[in-house]
């Protein structure tokens, strides 16, 4: 609330505590995950029991930091969010959360060794680490999608304009030495190539 972010409820575990601009995604606390029978019957004998247990413990521990006070608890139980089941009392949650304080970073998966993660950063590294074009797409309008390319494109045009202007100045200087002739050749090639590309772009 202090950071003035809008809470977006999601059921996708990978988006839990991922934020972008003024939005943060939070996965509600499922009723089954606070059940002893679930941990005993479904996680205890699973093939990837250790991996699942570490991920579940890390997810549970996030609520220790999300809900620190009774006011946080009331917000989490708000009808518009329903992050925590409404039949759980503050006293019950406090007793449950006190055990979560004993969970260390070693007990959780690597993801939950960190807190909130910026989605724009995840999308930036996704092509290199995940071999995907993005981690999670949140913009579905072309205007918003292409707006992120405006900065790099303007930067390239700015650099090209400066280089071309510098070459034109160098050609204009009347010093018929070897260096000036080389600059003249480069400048003419740049102008010819740039003009040809402009004509092709215009024709297309």
UniProtKB/TrEMBL annotation:
Pfam families: DUF6601 (PF20246)
Recorded superkingdom: Eukaryota
TM region(s), chain numbering: 149-173
Keyword Transmembrane (UniProt): yes
Alphabetically ordered keywords of this record: Membrane, Transmembrane, Transmembrane helix
Name the record gives this protein: Uncharacterized protein
């Amino acid at each position: 609330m202090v950071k003035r972010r809008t809470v977006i409820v999601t059921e996708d575990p990978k988006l839990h505590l991922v934020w972008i601009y003024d939005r943060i995604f939070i996965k509600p606390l499922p009723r089954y995950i606070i059940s002893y029978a679930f941990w005993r019957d479904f996680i205890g004998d699973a093939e990837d029991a250790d991996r699942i247990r570490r991920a579940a413990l890390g997810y549970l521990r996030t609520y220790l930091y999300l809900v620190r006070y009774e006011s946080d608890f009331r917000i989490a139980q708000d009808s518009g969010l329903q992050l925590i089941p409404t039949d759980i009392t503050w006293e019950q949650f406090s007793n449950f959360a006190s055990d979560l304080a004993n969970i260390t970073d070693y007990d959780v998966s690597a993801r939950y060794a960190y807190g909130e993660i910026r989605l724009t950063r995840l999308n930036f590294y996704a092509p290199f680490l995940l071999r995907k074009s993005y981690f999670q797409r949140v913009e579905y309008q072309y205007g918003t999608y292409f707006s992120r390319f405006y900065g790099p494109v303007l930067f390239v045009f700015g650099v090209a304009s400066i280089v071309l202007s510098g070459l034109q100045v160098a050609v204009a200087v009347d010093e018929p030495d070897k260096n000036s002739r080389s600059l003249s050749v480069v400048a003419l090639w740049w102008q010819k190539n740039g003009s040809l590309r402009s004509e092709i772009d215009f024709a297309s």
